[in-house]
Structures are given as C-alpha cells and as structure tokens.
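Cont'd.
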Amino acid sequence: MMLPSYCTLNYNGCVTCSDAGIPVRVVSMEGDDALCEDAAGSRAWIAVELVMPVQAGEVLLTHGGVAIGRVAAQEEDF
Amino acid sequence: MKYVDEFRNGELARAVAAGIASLTDPNRHYKIMEVCGGHTHTIYRHGIKDLLPDQVELVHGPGCPVCVLPMGRVDEGIEIAERPEVIFTCFGDMMRVPGSKGNLLEVKAEGADIRMVYSPLDALRIARENPDREVVFYAIGFETTAPSTALTLQRAKKEGVENFSVFCNHVTIVPPVRALLDSPDLRLDAFIGPGHVSTVIGCRPYEFMSADYDKPCVVAGFEPLDLLQSILMLMRQLDEGRCEVENQYGRVVLWEGNLQALKSMAEVFELRPYFEWRGLGFIAQSALKLSAAYADFDAELRYSTPGVRVADPKACQCGEVLKGVLKPPECKVFGTSCTPEHPLGALMVSSEGACAAYYNFGRKSFEKIEIGSKK
C-alpha cells in the first residue's frame, strides 16, 4: 500500500512548513478534542474548536495537532 | 489507496502534461512560481519538472518558514533556551536551523532543556506538568500554523497557565509575494498558490495579483496531479489572456477560508510594523506578534529579547535562491560544504527547502531526465 508522502501522523515531513496538512477521520469526540485516525491507521487527539461542529466519521485537515479545515464529502473514503 | 492513487495516476499525468504542451507557445518562456515549500517538495519528489516543456520554468518561492527565518531570530531563541529556568519547546526542523553560533540541537547537547514537540498544545501540556519551570514555545510558520498557536494561547489564558509563553515568529504569505512582484530582479508570469495556507485565509487575499499585477494565480493541492492540473489551469489563463484567481484544491479550500480560525488569530495576534525575511530584507506588516490582550504570554517581553540583526554567512546564497534569482545548484556551496547533513543555509535544513528538495531527489544539476530513458 502506498502511503502519502507527508500526509500521516507519524511522518509528515516538515511540520513547520505552513503547508504540511494531514487528512484524518474523526473516530470519537471528547469536549473540544477529537480522537482521529490517519490513512495509515495511526491515531492522535486533535483540537477541533476551529472547525466546530464536528461529528464522528468526518474527515478533517490537521496541522500541528489542531484541525484547520474539512475535506469535502466526496473524498472522505480515503 | 483512495485519495492518493487517483492523484498519482501516471496515465492521467501524461494526459495533463500533453495538455500543458499543447498550450505552450514555443517562442515564449513561461516563469511560474510555486509559492509554497510543500509544492517544491512534490515537484522534485515526483519529477514534475521532467513532464513540462522546456519553455515552462518553475521558480521556487519563499514559502518555507524555516528557510526565511533570519539568523538573529534563531540566536534569540537560543539565548532564551540557555536560561536555566526554561524548558524550550519547538518543532523538529527548528532544532537544526543554524544560528550564528550553532543550533538548538547543539545547545541541547550542552545541557539546555530543549524539547521537540509536534504541536504547541504539547508545549502547553509540558507547562501544566512543570509548574516550577518556565516553558517557552518557539512559534514559527505561515497562516497554516498560526491558528494552532492562537488556539493554544486561548487555552492557556482560559486555564490561567502562567508559566507558559510564546516566542512568536509567525509570518504571513501575501506581503512577501507582493515584495517579489515589486522586485526588479524577477519577471514572473503566474503563481501556484499555497493550498493549506489558503485553507485558513481563503482565496480572496490573492486577488491583488490579478487586479494590481495582471498575474494569474491557481491555489493548488499537494499531490502530483494537483500540481500538473494547476499548471494546466495557469497555461489556459495565459493562453486566453485571462488573469484570475482560481481554486484547484476545492476539496479542501473554501473561497472565504476558515472564519473560525481567522477570528481566533485576530484575537491573539496583531501585525508587526515590519519583519526581516532572509533574502528579502525587511517587509512591512509581514509577520505577527502577540496582541496586547496576550502580552503576558509574550516571550519577547518576558525575556526582553534585543532584536539583533545577524548577517548570513558570506558563502551562503540562500537569499538569491529564495528570490528565485538562482537555482540551488548555482549556489557555490550547494552539495559541497552545504548538505542536508551539514547545512550552512536554512534552505538545506527543511525537507521543504528548495536546496534540500534538489539534493534529496537527485536534481544536483540542470540535467533534464528524458521520460523512459535509463538515466
């Protein structure tokens, strides 16, 4: 299986680069944080205040532990 | 894998490349700048350059925050990190950026408490866990990263975490692009806009490129086909004599951006009157500092950093490369005394720096690789 070059939680190239964003799927919510899973199956807690409201199953774009955007519905199945 | 395979399909890539070739005027030279370091990385990793006609030149822009950070700001971070009461936190790539007397990794080896974090929220957690120490986060990045710092500071204020502060080096993308457009050194035809910065700020801020400078701009994603399609969209605009801002990365970028993130940034930050960029000099209103409401969390005030200016090493030509005047192999120390293992300049440090991308993906010269050849 080919993984995105810098689009997983474990290997995302340069986090200081303003353009390294990782698409993750929301697994569950707890307050302002969401447990999210990337395309490789790695999980991390991500702060989601900036993209509220968020539901389990949605795909978010995260950068530096914070969700900054949402990935369009037609491409959720990554 | 869905979401990746369709953006790396070789057959589609060749079809898009043929479309670009059909729109290329053989008597014209096209200079297209990819503003973002992430795009530079994709271009060299996937050999995009080899799919383009000779007349289409890609110029690497200033969109790597590690690369544009002036040496004086690195030195000031090191001075804070050396204080015995401080736990200094930063992203991984910052650790190797050379200051005038070494880098953070070397200072850590000498005993300073410097910790690499993935998120500013990790730095805040360290502050909560170490109430008897001062925790400083070295904030760096464009508008993609600034919201995570803003959110962290909002949480720190809400929770009353007093032993946490931020050394803010966040920069903004539009002023340096405007500076490049005003630069007499460079004649550019079009721009590939940064995809994830635009997730936050939207596409509207780029309208000045078409309105004031007659330059087309296409906001692009980061897979190889994203970039090829963006170049095709730019070539169409140039062919038809149009100058517009278009959004190729519509699956992520909304035209108006992320309003919640922008609101959070507006509360926490304000524009600096000016900020120094490596290679570009001082640019007005091109960086962020903490607003008065968050002054208690400002490491610059807490540690009275002097704001010294330090000149780059003489041998280093990062500035010219950043402006697109030189290609990385034209720098006199490229690949000899400056390598990813021992970088002299910041462009060789970050994996998204133009020099590191050239070096790591085998483009150590201008030699063009013919598709299908054994080279």
